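User: Can you predict the 3D structure for this chain?
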Amino acid sequence: MVKKAKLAPGLAVAKSAIDGKGCFATRFFPARRKIAEYAGELITVREAFARAMRREKHRMCAIDERWSIDGSRGGNGTHYINHSCEPNSFMRIARGRIIFMALRDIHPGEEITIDYVQTYHSDKKRCRCGTPTCRWTINKK
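Assistant: Here is the predicted structure, written as structure tokens:
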């Protein structure tokens, strides 16, 4: 059974200019410091691919070649972190945990973004970040 988690401290979910809902900072996050841990249901990569086939929006993140986390089930708001080709955060994976870290100083009110690099989405999935260096796809080819 998956419990519904509370939002991670320092985060809020709100409408995003990038896509749907986004994850926003409610406090200052200094560069290279932890923002939050990705939370959700632990699933196999095989199950992640099956769920991806049934959904347009994916809230899943791979830990390794065997395991993924589905943030749409028991997530803490980090599953609303949108892709950007010019992100302000990055992921660190250690001991089966996914940690979002600030790439640079992030101020209250800023949307937290990450470069997804490779996802369960098709390579044709369009990027909507609108940054000057946008590559127009979510997955890096």
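The beta strands are 11-15, 21-25, 34-37, 41-44, 60-62, 67-70, 82-83, 89-94, 97-102, 113-114. The longest strand covers residues 89-94.
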